[in-house]
Write a structure and sequence with these properties.
CATH class of the largest domain: Mainly Alpha
Helix content: 40-55%
Shape: elongated
Number of strands: 15
Structural class: alpha+beta
CATH architecture of the largest domain: Up-down Bundle
Radius of gyration: 31 Å
Number of domains: 3
Number of helices: 11
CATH superfamily of the largest domain: Multidrug efflux transporter AcrB transmembrane domain
Order of helices and strands: HEEEHEHEEHEEEEHEEEHEHHEHHH
Strand content: 15-25%
Amino acid sequence: MRKAGPILIAVIGVLALIVCFVPGLMLPDSSSPTGSRPIETKLGLDLQGGLRVEYQAQPVNGVEPTPADMAILKDIIERRVNSTGVSEPVVVVQGTDRIVVELPGVTDADAVRRLVGQTGRLDFVPLGSTQVQVGQELDLVAYPPLFSGDQIKSASIGQSSTGGLTVDFVLKDEGAKLFADYTAAHVGEYFAIVLDGKVISAPVINEAIPNGQVQISAGSLGGFSAAEANDLVTILKFGSLPFPIQEVSAQQISATLGSQFLAQSLIAGMIGILLVITFMLLYYRLPGLVASFALVYYTIVVYAIFRLIPVTLTLAGIAGFVLSIGMAVDANILIFERMKEELRVGKSLPAAVEAGFNRAWNSILDSNVSSLITATILYSFGSSTIRGFALVLIIGVLVSMFSAIVVTRTILRAVVRFDWARKPWMYGMRDDEFVAMGAARPTTRRGAVTRV
């Protein structure tokens, strides 16, 4: 590990710099319709604004929605919004029948509103030889459905043999049997997917489908566009709600904190980091310089991880990041104080460095594991804002342990080999406290000075 440490630190540092500062990088992403997504910094609603839409659940046959029904509505709407790639949406139930959706950084508000607003019954309708257009209203009395959307087991974006995008879905047992019987007898006829009485897709049955595994193509070598395929998959997966909802209001909202506040927060954070670095340099001298480099290294690596995952940065997330910086410095202080204790009892500088890290490790581990447990609980059971804070804190704690234990230790091991680094003042110690590779320490033994 001693030989591999510098190489590992250098590789991670170079990759982090590339991720942070090279524009236009893409990352493979199987969940994305295009198969990749840009590496970018995502800001939350409180920092960049977005869209706020309020919906009201409508009664069905005079029956009002219960709190349990509203929880189901909230869950389905949240999953629909997440499927569009909107980062950290806020979906909350207000009162007994209203749901408020806040979408940060939305660029195509109408597309998201249409997707969320598609709330009614999803049906699979045999058309026979009748050809219909997508978007056309369909009379479900004249064309009775074969089965409804509750028979959808799963749906995903696939690829045809020609390379075009397709929409693949799997039916549950009852739907699979009905579809197998129908397609076996009606090859070459049309079959519509209908949401709220409106045709979403109307493909031709090319062959019998006996196993409930269905693939829909766009009828051309190019297949579906990425947006079309993603929208259809979302409708198939989350098409039906237990109660219809009606849009009550919608408005574009500006950032609640604004770009000016974000700039001020970043300046304040930089001032805080500089103050921490100043303290480390003045009090711990050479180890403080090494710790300051490790802190800058830590900040770059964490920011790179935020862009890779990606993490949506809200005010709460920035707070978690600042908190993790404090924990990273705390680990270095524990190590350096232990190291000074070892120097005072007469150990050589290299041995004191190793002993300082080894003795501080248990305290560092206990402290960070406690923080990780708390953050994991917050992430598991908190709201979207709380989960954002918890995720940032988890990443920060893990990287801070790496920077304190691996980065600082590796650099100190290399530095203390040099003679110029073996001076007491470089460690904030007096001459009579310091023993470094055979340096003299005055001790009282029969009135003589003894060399240790």
